[in-house]
User: What shape does this take?
Amino acid sequence: MPGVIDIHVHLREPGGTHKEDFSSGTAAALAGGVIAVLDMPNNTPPVVDRSTLDQKIEIARQKARCDYAFYVGASMENATAPVIDPHVAGLKMYLDATYGPLRLASLAALLGHFESWPRNKPIAAHAEGLSTAVIVGLAQLYDRPVHICHVSRRSEIELVRRAKERGVHVTCEVTPHHLFLTQDDAPSLGNLAYMKPELGTQADNDALWDNLGIVDAVASDHAPHTLEEKQSDSPPPGIPGLETTLPLLLNAVHNGRLSLERVVELCHDGPARIMGLRPPDDSYVEVDLDATWSIRGADLLTKCGWTPFEGMTVYGRVRSVYLRGTRVYEPGKVLAAPGSGRPLSLA
Ligand SMILES: [Zn+2]
Assistant: This one.
């Protein structure tokens, strides 16, 4: 199948390399069948201007093992001065509190971004609950593409469905954790289940599956923190996901909940369409749909070394990954060197 394009990852560099870095995060990507990642801007410092973007471009040039592009963060200061660059896939806008410093709390700045951000690149929004209505309303008012990240609630997905039916230029993604976990899993997971958006109810989960036909992409929202940080008294939100997204979806194929064609649409075609990107040539993943294995945090390549899916047995395993004609992953081994990844070709 075509390689996975994950449009929502946090590789934590710069500023959080004890959690993950571009080398470890992109190794995890390849092990999960992911050939390209779009990295989020809520770093320390946040990527909101030319110098912080240049710093990240240089880090990726030296360390990325898969292909990549970036989001720039929407801040108060850059609302009327968009940071545009061939490496930038979109503008990330945080309307609700999450991990990092980028919450956009000013209406004037919000409107400034909608007026000044280039129309050929999406505005990607972290917008939960009422904020979902704000962002859908602005997409309609400005008649421009807006992508809603990690939709997780029944009311949100139903609003997105209505907006799409009315021709509003909205797209949306869902995460594997909102597809395969609910609040019922939270007691046994403890702090490891803490994420933004938080896990939904069974009714929310049912609504995501019932409306999967209007979902444009599955994205991991790979957001690693160390086990020590997660088990502290003030755990940060976020879980790793790069290595479990495709196996969980292939397991859903095995269980008859999804077709393999739909997995390709959600993990490759949809992401490329939303972001106006050209996937790398000769890049694909060999998967074994009948292989069964147990997910173990200790076996993962993400630096954080844990997973909320610990011990889960799934059908479907990544065997080999090819990027631009070269084999970059074979079972248990990443073959791509740091720095061999390339910037994605964007619209
Ligand atoms: Zn995120």
Observations:
- Residues 16 and 44 are 7 Å apart (CA to CA).
